[in-house]
Design goal:
The chain is mostly helical and about 450 residues long. Helix content is about 50%, strand content about 0%. The chain has a two-stranded antiparallel sheet with strand order 1-2. α6 runs parallel beside α8. About 20% of the residues are buried.
């Protein structure tokens, strides 16, 4: 909430009344730090407007004159107390205000961020990103802190925690009981590979254990179907476990269908990383997926993406036409590099010496690139000039042609390519200086 000088008093009264009412409705034994509902109802943070030095106490319509302060409440201090204690817009020992975090709602206290930095060695940005989910509002900081240290005792790494921040929302007891369960028969060889299964409640893990036991005869050389799928996809078991819990229906789908689908995707050179990040593909119609993969491969796409298998017909046709036109332009050239070498009459080393090639042109629409080269050659630019100004090819044909015409109207006969990709302000200044010279 944003408080200004006119409404601050009313908000303080409302905060005190609400806090008192909630406190009265909870028995004393329920008002503990570990009680999730009490933690939710108890205020934890606010964004406060405090006038800066020299600003009048009335309302101001100038947004630049305001100073917004992000206050993170501790477990033992209420919001109303924290507001009264702030007599100036300066950080105290209980709050550390950082410039990049003004007005940013972080659902945990500063102590949790500090522990993530010190215990797991995260950067400030990584720590803030890990706890940005609104679900962290539902759990007290004391519980999160205990779970955090418990995970460190199990040697959970920083990277795992960043991939699975939801594990911090569980109590240390829940985490410990689940981790001890993961190494039992028909589950995982060690708890590191099965850590993603902590996403499920304990009774669900037992249910999957019974299922894995019943289907073990189908895949006797693997602990369970997760190891079997990981072997088929050639990906680490721990990464697959972390992904598959969000697509849990894959844990009960027919194994033969999974095997056939993986063979289909491998046949058309779909990358295993793409499959791992999009496990929902196994629920799509296999015939439609195969027809689309065939079409996109014939059109010249070397690394088809899975979204092409399930997008609308309109989007797929537009994508197909783009790849087909690109294939038509390239002709006998097998890559964009070969095409540019042919058009610009240069060597591969000359092309790669241009640092802009990798960042600007690799994903560029080839027909558009062809039009730009044709237009620049028609305007009198040499292939050497184009080679040393590859950045120019990423702009629209209309923009470049308009600038060339304007420079010609101002009497410029020999246009330097670098003037065509100046910023709008710089280009206007350059044109103004030419007009002044004419006068």
């Amino acid at each position: 909430m944003l408080f200004n000088a006119r409404t601050l008093g009313k908000c303080l009264k409302l905060s005190n009344s609400l806090h008192a009412a909630v406190q009265a409705s909870f028995p004393s034994h329920a008002r503990t730090k570990n009680n999730c509902l009490w933690s939710l109802l108890r205020p934890r943070y606010c964004v406060l407007h405090i006038p800066v030095a020299g600003e009048h106490s009335g309302l101001s319509s100038d947004k630049d004159s305001r100073s917004h302060i992000y206050l993170q409440g501790r477990d033992d201090i209420s919001v109303s107390d924290s507001i009264r204690s702030q007599e100036a817009a300066l950080p105290t020992k209980h709050w550390r205000i950082r410039q990049k975090e003004f007005n940013r709602k972080i659902p945990v206290g500063e102590s949790i961020l500090q522990e993530l930095e010190s215990v797991f060695g995260m950067t400030r940005h990584e720590a803030v990103t890990t706890v940005q989910s609104p679900k962290f509002f539902l759990v007290a900081d004391a519980v999160i802190s205990s779970t955090l240290h418990s995970l460190k005792d199990f040697d959970i790494t920083s990277k795992q925690l960043q991939r699975m921040p939801w594990i911090l929302l569980q109590t240390p007891g829940e985490v410990a009981s689940k981790i001890s369960k993961l190494s039992e028969p028909y589950l995982f060889q060690n708890y590191f590979e099965g850590l993603g299964f902590c996403y499920f409640p304990l009774h669900k893990i037992r249910q999957y254990q019974r299922q894995f036991e019943s289907e073990w005869e189908e895949i006797p050389h693997h602990n369970n179907r997760i190891y079997y799928i990981a072997d088929q996809l050639m990906v680490p078991v721990d990464l697959l476990t972390e992904k598959i819990v969000k697509v849990h229906r894959l844990l009960s789908i027919d194994l033969h269908r999974i095997e056939v689908y993986i063979a289909l995707l491998n046949k058309y050179n779909v990358q295993r990383e793409d499959i791992l990040n999009d496990l929902w593909i196994f629920f799509n119609n296999m015939d439609i997926a195969e027809k689309r993969l065939q079409a996109i491969i014939r059109a010249g796409c070397k690394r088809p993406k899975l979204w092409m298998c399930r997008c609308t017909e309109e989007v797929f046709e537009r994508t197909l036409n783009r790849y087909q036109s690109q294939k038509d332009v390239l002709g006998e050239c097998r890559s964009l590099e070969e095409y540019l070498i042919m058009r610009l009459g240069c060597s591969l080393d000359d092309l790669r010496d241009q640092g802009e090639f990798d960042h600007t042109l690799r994903r560029m629409n080839v027909p558009k690139l062809k039009k730009m080269i044709d237009m620049l050659l028609q305007e009198g630019f040499s292939t050497k000039q184009i080679l040393h100004s590859l950045r120019l090819l990423k702009y629209s044909e209309h923009r470049t042609r308009t600038r060339i015409q304007r420079l010609k109207d101002l009497g410029v006969t020999k246009i330097i390519p670098s003037t065509l990709y100046k910023s709008p302000r710089s280009f206007e200044s350059y044109c103004s200086s030419l007009q002044e010279k004419e006068k």
